Every structure is written in structure tokens, then in C-alpha cells.
Amino acid sequence: MLDATQIASYQSNGYLAVESVLTVAELEELRQVTDEFVERSRGVTANDAIFDLEPGHSAASPSLRRIKHPLTKHPVYAKYARHERILDMVESLLGPNLRSHNNKLNMKNHGDGSAVEWHQDWAFYPHTNDDLLEVGIALDDMTMENGALMVLPGSHRGRTWNHHQDGLFVGAITDRGFTGDGAVPVTVRAGGITLHHVRMVHGSRPNRSMKPRRMFFIGFCATDAWPLVPSGDSLEDLNSRVVRGKPTLEPRMKDLPVRLSLPRVEGGSIYEQQEKLRNPRLASG
Fold first, then answer.
1. pLDDT per residue over 3-29, tens digit each?
2. b/e for 59-83, b at 16 or more Cβ within 10 A?
């Protein structure tokens, strides 16, 4: 569980970093499975349902930006949606009834790891309330040098920024008045985790170092938070992802700023969406 100081910090700032959550054996297990997926990607030449490739990817030198939906791709990944210590911390922030939803394993390989432009997860998947957060499990030390997560403290209590360009959702903040001033890095050692609120403004610069930065992200929400944008999930799908407590058929409504992520540019991942952005802010970092 989180202590009162950590909970107050999350509520005020919108994020936390917690060291030494995974055991050495758990960390090694995740790294080994991830390395196996990288090896499998040698035979892939274009983005598909599993792999999002860096522009320089090749069979001789495989380089991934993302493993898509890892919870459904390997039982080792799936275990971490029900990791008791992680769920104890999430419950401290969201309450006793929890569902997993969004998940991905983002990679910033040494020397070529892509940036992720400023955005809010809330822009992608608004719900009836904002009791949603993202847990990031660090497979490597996450430092300023290798493209640490950057956040704007307190932004989870503010506006929903525009993520549209020419009428299409491009997965990045496009408001001319947005600057990113006041952003801070979130650093954590391998085996630690980060937690950030669904409305938190965040992003990350490219990895220009010689050390990798791999983060396994799992989203969690209160079971009474229901998606406002149709996802194609059935009631059975949603209930199968309840990881603690009970499901409900009574969505809890909260008055929040919402802008729907429709229509979207072609391409499934945030990287493909943000490639359409005319004025990237973090890619040159």
C-alpha cells in the first residue's frame, strides 16, 4: 500500500515513482520475455498487431518502439495486471474495485529511441469519471539521459488540451498556447514503477544515450469508470479484466472537460498518429 504522504503527493501532483517494487527474479523474467519478442521481430518488415517498429528496424538489427497489448501476447506479461503489490498501490489511489484496460511495452533503444510528444491519456480514452491511471514498470533504469518520462505536475487537475490537427486526432497536444514550461523528469531504477493520472500532461524525449529504456505500461481504472468512446469491448470483455473487487452496471458520472478522440488518423499506435504532427516539440530533444 502507499502511505499517506505518497497518496497526498499523487493527488496534488498527479504522479509518483516507487522504487524496488519487483524482485530481481521478476525483473529478469520480464527482460527475458521482452528479448524473445525482439528476436521474433527480425522477421517483421512493417508494423503489425504485435510490433511497432523504429524507422531503422531490420532483420540484422531489430529495433522496436513498442510491443502492442503485451498482456494478451504472453502469460508472463499477463501476470503483472494482477501483481498483488502493484494492485495494493493502485487500490490506494482508485479504490477497491479495479479493471485493467490499456497496456503496451514502450522501448527507447540506445541511440535511436523515438520521442513521445506531449499528450494526455485522457484525450485518447475519456471515461465517465477520471479514476484511471497508468502504471509504468521499469525494465531498465529510467534517467534523464535515456529519455525519462516528463510530466507537468498538477496538470491532471486542469484543462483537456486539443490533440487534433486539421480536424483529425493526431495523439499530441496541438494548442498554440501550450509550452510545456514547468515539466519535470520522473526517474526510477529498474524494478521500480511510476504511476500517473489519466489527465496528466506527459511525454518523453528521444534516447540519445547508449543505455536502453524499456517501460511496461498497464492502465487501471475503477470499475465504475466507463469509456465514452466505443472500444469494441463487450460487457464480457470488460468484466474479464476486473483484477480486484467487483464489476458494476452503474457508471459513476463526473463533470469533467472532455474532447473526443475522433476522427483519428490512420494507424494504430501513438507513434503512427504523432508522425502526422507538423510541429513536434520533443522529437528534437
1. 999 999 999 999 999 999 999 999 999
2. eeebbbbbbbebbebeeebeebbeb
Tell me the average pLDDT across 19-46. 98
Q: What is the pLDDT of residues 72-112, one digit of tens each?
A: 999 999 999 999 999 999 999 999 999 999 999 999 998 87
Q: Number of C-alpha atoms within 13 angstroms, CB side, residue 203?
A: 26
Q: How far apart are CA 65 and CA 214, in angstroms?
A: 9
CB 86 within 8 A of CB 80: yes
Q: What is the DSSP letter of 264?
A: B
Instruction: For 119, list phi and psi in degrees, rounded to 5.
Output: -160, 170
Question: Could you give the angle at the alpha carbon of 39 between the alpha carbons of 33 and 44, nearest 5°?
Answer: 125
Question: Rounded to 5 degrees, what are φ and ψ at 80?
Answer: -80, -10
Give me 252's grid cell: 459513476
Using an 8 Å Cβ cutoff, are 146 and 110 in contact?
yes
Nearest to 205 by CA among 190, 188, 186, 191: 186
What is the number of other CB atoms lying within 10 angstroms of the CB of residue 19? 11
Q: Are 283 and 118 in contact (CB under 8 A)?
A: no
Q: d(Cα 147, Cα 108) in Å, to the nearest integer?
A: 7
| Lookup result for grid cell 466505443 | 230
Q: How far apart are CA 275 and CA 283, in angstroms?
A: 10
Return the pLDDT at 171.
95
pLDDT tens, 231-277?
Answer: 889 999 999 999 999 999 999 999 999 999 999 877 678 998 998 89
Burial classification of residue 251, based on how many CB atoms lie within 10 Å of its CB (0-12 exposed, 13-18 middle, 19 or more buried): middle
Query: Residue for cell digits 521478476?
Result: 26
Amino acid identity, position 144? M
For the chain, what percentages of helix, strand and coil (3-state, to nearest 5) are there?
A: 25, 25, 50
